[in-house]
Each structure stands twice: as structure tokens, then as C-alpha cells.
Design goal:
The chain is α+β, with helices and mostly antiparallel strands and 177 residues long. Helix content is 37%, strand content 18%. The longest helix is centred in the middle third of the chain and has 28 residues, at 52-79.
């Protein structure tokens, strides 16, 4: 079985970059000699300097790439027998639901297999740390720790329950870079 997608249904991550999000300048255009060889060094830097829109497009492309790698990683865990297909699917769907609940701003998590055939997601942002374990029986356990204050919080979610506001509030602490 190929590790291209966690799912055997149509949800997939696009592998081709969106041309509308790419810089209007290609590398060859930037490196080609200018018509006016007498441009000052300042002007050259201002032409080459990426705009804020370009930086945002790069960040969005990088985040999409991380999401694609998460999808491939979950499929690989499934294909190697580290987790079952249901757990891979549940992990992917939980990630997508959290992302949607935060308005698409949640950073793609770090992921690893757990000791009990679960998928472990984690996020870190300055003093904030959050973990999510997705178990084969459909349970999901959230854990949050504020490293500065020592405040701890946890939540167990059963399959089919909607994501509560306190989980969304904690997840919002981990925006895309």
C-alpha cells in the first residue's frame, strides 16, 4: 500500500503549488541582467526584496507542505503497522476539525506514534505546550501546560463529541508561523 494518503477516499493534500500564491518573479528573471546597468545597489535590493504578500504566500506554502508531510507520515505509520487505519483516519480527521475550528490558523502539529497504538500530536509556542493523543478506541485526550505559570489543563473527548470552546481556545495559542 502506498503512503500517499491516510485515507482511501478523496480527501488529499494537493502536491502542486498554487500559481496565484507564487512570487511574480522567477529566479531567472531576478538573476538576469537589467536593462539599465547603472541601477544603484539600493534599487537592486528593493527590486529583489520580497513583498509582505510574497512572504505570506511562502508561509502558506510551507504550512501546506507541513500538512502534506503530516498526511504522508500518518499513512506511513499505518503502512508499517505502527497504528491501524482507523487511528490514522481519526488522527487526520481530528487535525482537520481542529484546524477548521481555529479558522485555519492552527499550526500543523509535531506527530509521533504512542506506546498504546495511539497518535501523539504536540504543539509548542513560547511558554505554551499542548498535546493531543488519539487512541484506537476513538478517545482523544488533550493536555496543556503553561511553562511560565505552571498551569495545567486536560480534557478527554469521546468520539462523536463536538470540540468544546476551551479546547479551541487552547489551540488558538499555536498559530501558524
Amino acid at each position: 500500500m502506498s503512503a500517499k494518503s491516510v485515507l482511501d477516499d478523496p480527501i488529499r493534500i494537493d502536491t502542486e503549488p498554487d500559481p496565484a500564491r507564487m512570487s511574480e518573479w522567477t529566479y531567472e528573471q531576478l538573476m538576469a541582467p537589467t536593462q539599465n546597468e547603472l541601477l544603484s545597489e539600493t534599487m537592486k535590493r528593493s527590486v529583489v526584496r520580497p513583498s509582505e504578500g510574497h512572504r505570506e504566500a511562502e508561509r502558506a506554502f510551507h504550512e501546506k507542505s507541513r500538512e502534506q508531510r503530516l498526511n504522508t507520515y500518518l499513512a506511513d505509520l499505518r503502512d508499517r503497522g505502527r497504528i491501524d487505519g482507523y487511528t490514522a483516519l481519526k488522527a487526520w480527521n481530528t487535525w482537520r476539525a481542529l484546524k477548521k475550528a481555529t479558522g485555519g490558523t492552527l499550526r500543523v502539529p509535531n506527530a509521533s506514534p504512542g506506546d498504546e497504538d495511539q497518535v501523539h500530536f504536540s504543539w509548542n509556542q513560547e511558554e505554551h505546550h499542548m498535546e493531543l493523543d488519539i487512541f484506537p478506541d476513538g478517545r482523544a485526550e488533550f493536555f496543556y501546560r503553561n511553562r511560565r505559570t505552571g498551569k495545567l489543563w486536560d480534557h478527554e473527548q469521546l468520539e462523536g463529541e463536538s470540540i468544546p470552546a476551551d479546547v479551541i481556545k487552547k489551540a488558538a495559542l499555536f498559530p501558524r508561523a
